[in-house]
Each structure stands twice: as C-alpha cells, then as structure tokens.
Amino acid sequence: MADPTTPVYRTDTALRDGFWIRALLLTLALAFLTLFLFLPLLSVFVEASRKGYAAFAEAVTEPDALSAIRLTLLVAAIAVPFNVVVGIAAAWAIAKFEFRGKSLLISFIDLPFSVSPVISGLVFVLLFGAQGFLGPWLKANNIEIIFALPGLVLATVFVTFPFVARELIPHMQALGSTDEEAALTLGASPWRTFFTITLPNVKWSLFYGVLLCNARAMGEFGAVTVVSGRIRGLTTTMPLHVEILYNEYNSVAAFAVASLLAGLALVTLTLKTYLEWHYADAIAATKRH
Questions:
Q1: DSSP H helix total and E strand total for the chain
Q2: Which of 29, 39, 153, 282 has the highest Cβ tally under 10 A?
Q3: How far apart are CA 254 and CA 228, in angstroms?
Q4: 113-166 tens-digit pLDDT
C-alpha cells in the first residue's frame, strides 16, 4: 500500500508545459511559417495575377511555356515509375533479407541527399558529354544524352531516387516478415506473396513516396540545369523556363509559370493531408500490424 505521506505526481501534469511556454512556441512556429512559407507562396500567386487573367493565360499557353510543361510532365512520367520499381525492389531487399553489403546499399540510396544536385549534373556531363568519358563512343553511335531528354531523365532519377525507398524501408522493417513466411509456408509463390501481402501492407507509404518523388521531379532545378543546356523550347523544364523569363525581366510570365509549380506543391500537400485524415485508422492499423 502506498505511503500517504509520499507526494503523488500526475504524469500528464508534470509533462505539460505552462501556458506561456506553449503560447510562445506556437507563436514562433506560426511566425516562421508565415515569413518563410505562406508569404512567399502568396506572393507567387499575387504576382502571377497582377496583370489579370489574360496575361496569365498568355504566359502559360505560349509555345515555349507549353513545351516546358510537356517536357516536365514527360520527364516525371519516366523518372517516377522507374524510381517506384527500383525503390520497391531496394526496400524489399533491405527490409526482408540479410546480405553482405546491405549497409553500403543503404548509403548509396542516401547519396543523392548528401550530394549537391549541381554536382550530380556535372558528373553526368563528365560521363556522357561530348568531351566526357563515354562521349566519343556515344557520338560515334549517334546517341544523345546530354542536352537531350535522356540527360534530363537521368539527372531527375538520381535526385529523386531516395524518396520512394526511404518511405518504404522503415515501414517494411516494422512489419517484419511473418506474413510473408506464413504465405510461403501455405504454398504461395514469391510473386503472389509480394503482390497480395507485401505491397498492400505498404501501400500508404508507397503512395506518399510517389507524391514526394513526383513533386521533386517536376520542381528539380540544380541537376537539370547542368545537363539541359537551357535550349529554350527544347530542353527547358518549367523551373528552367521560370529562370529564363525572370532573367529577361518578364516577371509576370515567370510568376505565372511558377504558380503552376506552386499549385502542384499545394495539391500534393492537400492530397497527402486528406489521405492521412480520411484513412487515418487504416494507416494506423497497418503500421501497428
């Protein structure tokens, strides 16, 4: 029996911050978000509409802008599915199996986070450029990589590769291999086990990874600007087109195209938040499994 003279502390009270501390932290967080996120985002849309809808529509429908939009969508349509397939394979191998070089593979997955995108683009130029290591062979076989679509795809794939794998690895590790082992014991093939057990269990993490990967693919600037050559109307993606317009002091058109990228970011955030809210119970149940 507890000693009545011993003071009793309520855990929830002891761990609860005072009102002024909570108010201060909340104020600082809101001030930071307002200054560095909300105001810049709002200014993009304000500047884009400063001269009215007609100027906005003209800026986003002129030939170079349409070419940049199509190229951005094409690069993302190639890079994102590739990263999904490779990211799933890498996460499955790391989370479900033990093998020599596993830690090295994890380091390689994280490499794009630690290398500047500009440096990664430069590496591709040194490898595949006209004066690069493979340049003479590519030229002899009439293959264009740098200053062409393949170079843009390679640079985008490298920069966006970690997003899918990094969303899946911790989730797969938390789930363990019990379900897969049970399915294999009952006679299911490895592929059937993967598509009916593994993949459905990590579908939310996979979807988040795809959202982040797609948003980064469409907004990538550093690596793409090195390998593209900035050939207007041919190898300029939307971020590069924004830079060209801004350097030409065509700020309204630059902000108009930038607003499309900002809108993509808002759609990504809204969709992710909606899924987390609407399917919160399902997501939590999957993670507890």
A1: 17, 0
A2: 153
A3: 19
A4: 889 999 999 999 999 988 888 989 998 889 999 999 999 999 999 999 999 999
pTM of the predicted structure, to 2 decimals: 0.83
C-beta of residue 102 within 8 angstroms of C-beta of residue 94: yes
Contact indicator for 129, 146 with CB cutoff of 8 Å:
yes
Mean predicted confidence (pLDDT) in 199-228: 90
Structure tokens at 153: 């795809």
CA distance 58 to 53: 8
Annotated domain spans of the chain: 53-283
Q: What is the C-alpha to C-alpha distance for residues 34 and 258, in angstroms, rounded to an integer? A: 19
Q: Positive or negative CA dihedral for 224, 229, 235, 241? A: positive
Q: Answer yes or no: are the C-beta atoms of 257 and 193 closer than 8 Å.
A: no
197/178 Cα distance (integer angstroms): 10
b/e map 265-275, b = 16+ CB within 10 Å: eeebeeeeeeb
Domain 53-283, CATH 1.10.3720.10 — does that match? yes
